[in-house]
Specification:
Layout: H1 22-32, E1 37-43, H2 47-55, E2 63-68, H3 74-83, E3 88-90, E4 103-105, H4 112-117, E5 121-124, H5 143-146, E6 152-154, H6 162-171, E7 174-176, H7 183-192, H8 194-223
Parallel strand pairs: 1-2, 1-5, 2-4, 3-4, 5-6, 6-7
Helix pairs in contact: 6-8, 7-8
Length: 238
């Protein structure tokens, strides 16, 4: 909604962590084991192929989970990725994360919270699209990985989330790159030094929690101006 009330709160900053299926999280975690995981979150046209190419081989046994913003694009996305010789499978047709799978196309709705929780690093889709010829998107909500204590990296176009990006960057919980070609320079250190990635994620979550506290301040300010609740007369016994 993006509403502000006398400068006290931006409702974009408020919200709960994305929901997820706990049983499915445990199952997929067991399949992944100790493999490093990068999640490309809410990707758009041309991003899947370009981002996966530059991230390939950054770590041994790397697993890339690609979550298209619009799952109906999955057949075309899958064809592009197969041409690049990825050993991939699609979630929507029953594919699973096996040892010989290095790219998991998570082409379902409402499961981003599940896949972000599996990530070591999250790359925000929609923020690279214009530079790759995919049209202007303006990025997607970086508070989603932040609320889960996940380090995130955004591309150059996050125009819909400028204030949020600024808050997270100042806290050290988000990095922005000017081009998808620069992604390896930011992602590789986070995969090689998990403690650094975890600290970045913790900073992101602290900043997200502090930003969301504005809604509590707003409610406190509003309560003083609200009328008392109407008193209801006790019901007479029949």
């Amino acid at each position: 909604m993006g509403a502000r009330v006398e400068g006290q709160v931006n409702l974009k900053l408020s919200g709960e962590p994305l929901p997820y299926d706990r049983a499915e999280f445990s199952r997929l975690s067991a399949l992944i084991g100790d493999r490093p995981v990068i999640v490309l979150a809410s990707t758009h046209e041309n991003e899947e192929q370009a981002l996966s190419k530059v991230l390939r081989g950054l770590a041994p046994r790397l697993l890339l989970i690609v979550v298209p913003r619009h799952p109906n694009r999955a057949p075309d996305v899958a064809e592009e990725l197969r041409r690049d010789a990825w050993r991939m499978t699609r979630r929507s047709v029953g594919g699973d994360i096996a040892d010989d799978v290095d790219l998991y196309l998570a082409d379902t709705l409402g499961e981003l919270g599940l896949f972000m929780r599996l990530a070591d690093v999250v790359v925000m889709g929609g923020s690279f699209a214009p530079a790759l010829g995919g049209g202007t998107v303006g990025g997607h909500n970086p508070l989603e990985p932040a609320r889960l204590a996940k380090p995130a990296i955004s591309g150059p176009d996050a125009s819909n989330w400028q204030q949020v990006n600024r808050i997270l960057k100042q806290a050290g919980g988000l990095t922005t790159v000017l081009s998808h070609d620069h992604l390896p320079d930011e992602v590789r250190p986070l995969l090689e030094r998990p403690e650094q990635a975890q600290e970045m994620g913790h900073r992101a979550r602290r900043a997200a929690n502090e930003a969301a506290a504005g809604l509590d301040r707003l409610w406190g300010a509003l309560q003083a101006h609200l009328p008392d609740a109407p008193k209801t007369a006790p019901r007479k016994p029949r």
